[in-house]
Structures are given as structure tokens and as C-alpha cells.
Amino acid sequence: MACESWRAKLDTYLDGELPSDQMRAFDHHVRGCLACSSAALALVRRKRSVHDAGKRFTPSPEFRSRIQKSIAARPQRSVGFAWRTASAAFALVLVVGTVYFGTLRSRTDQAFGEVADLHVETLASSSPVDVVSTDRHTVKPWFQGRIPFSFDLPELQNSEFSLLGGRMTYLEQAPGAHLIYQVRKHDISVFIFQEASLRGRLDENASATKKSSFSTETWSRGGLRYFVIGDASTGDIENLARLFKATEG
After folding, report:
1. Closest CA to 220 of 248, 179, 243, 181
2. Would you say domain 128-249 falls under CATH 3.30.200.100?
3. Statement: the pTM of the whole predicted model exceeds 0.85
4. Could you give the CA distance from residue 162 to residue 149 in angstroms, rounded to a whole number?
């Protein structure tokens, strides 16, 4: 019965819309409650299934043509036509620009949302890593032959971070590496994917404005896309990202 109050807030928790103090309390509860962590995992999977199903519809060329013809068939009035045409053209430029940047932001928010789901799903799992090791020389070779690219892991000596292990993961059906680090009892996920395997560009400045309970950072280098995400402080996320960037030469 005690968990009913937690589960009533589960949807809001996964959307990152609870107050920060409640988010921290929920994080702590989910880590220690098998029933709630299982419920969180099931809900994350359902959200991902609905999200994937929603991307299956793409307007056909016939549909686009029909809409364009219906717009072109509308009668035009001569009074102020030139002015309205110029105004419409200007408005169209604004709309196209807004749509482009809105799509870029939406695309980035979508990617961060999916990465956050992967992070939560892993923390809720009874087996968060497939290769358990604090040694980067053990974890890195484990991915060889499992993903179609290679990457480097940072040296953690003299840092506050510890490596817990890694697992394979998928984003937009693209295979990638998921590394899990810990700092002061906070788990941080590092995701690495091939940039070319992901759909569309990402706005790398959008992470600071993403509405989420997690701190995030992303960058692209050497054909790879990196995501660092966790409930640790922004400074810790930036420091771990900096260690990874230092390994990239």
C-alpha cells in the first residue's frame, strides 16, 4: 500500500515534471523498491513502443499533392493582392525558419527524451550492465564485434568517477555503447552512437534548456555522437564529458 502514492506519480516522474525535491526522493525510492522499479521499467517500455508507433506514418506524395491543389484552388481577391502576396511571402519565410529551428529543437528534445528513457530503464533493471568491471581495458574490448565502431574510454585515476561496466543499447534502432559511471553514489550514463546512424541534426545548445530531472551534455566528434546523462550535478556531468573529450585527441 505504501507504494501506491509513489506509483500515482510515476508518469510525472518519468516525464521529469515533479519538483526537484520529489524527484530526488523518487530516485531514492525506485533504487530500493523492486516493485516500483519494475513498474517504471514497464512504463518506459510502453512509452517507447507508443513513440515508435507514432513515427510509422509519413504523408504520402498523393496526400501532399491533394493538399497543395486544394490550397491553389482557393479564389484570390485583387484588392491589395500585391501587398498580401509580399506579406504572405514574408510570413512564409518566418514560418519556414520557425519550423526548421522548431524541428531541430524538437528533434533534439526527442533524442534527449529517448536517452533519458534508456538511462531510467537501465537503472530500473536487475542487471544494469552486461560486462561488470571497473577496468576500462576490460570493458572496451567487450564491445568489439558487438557494435560497428570503436571508441576510447578515459583514464579515471585521480578523478572522483568510477566505472561500473557497460552494455549494448539501441537508439533509433542504431546499436551503441552504454557505459555506466558513478560519482558520490550518483549513476551517470554515457551513450555512444555513430552519428550517421541517427536521424537528423541535433541542437547541441539545447541540453541546458531541456526540461528534465537529469543533467545532460552531448557532442559529436570523429563520426560519433556522445550523450552524458544522470542525476548528478551539472558540474559532474561536465567533468565526465571533459574526460571523454580529452581521450578523443
Report:
1. 248
2. yes
3. no
4. 24
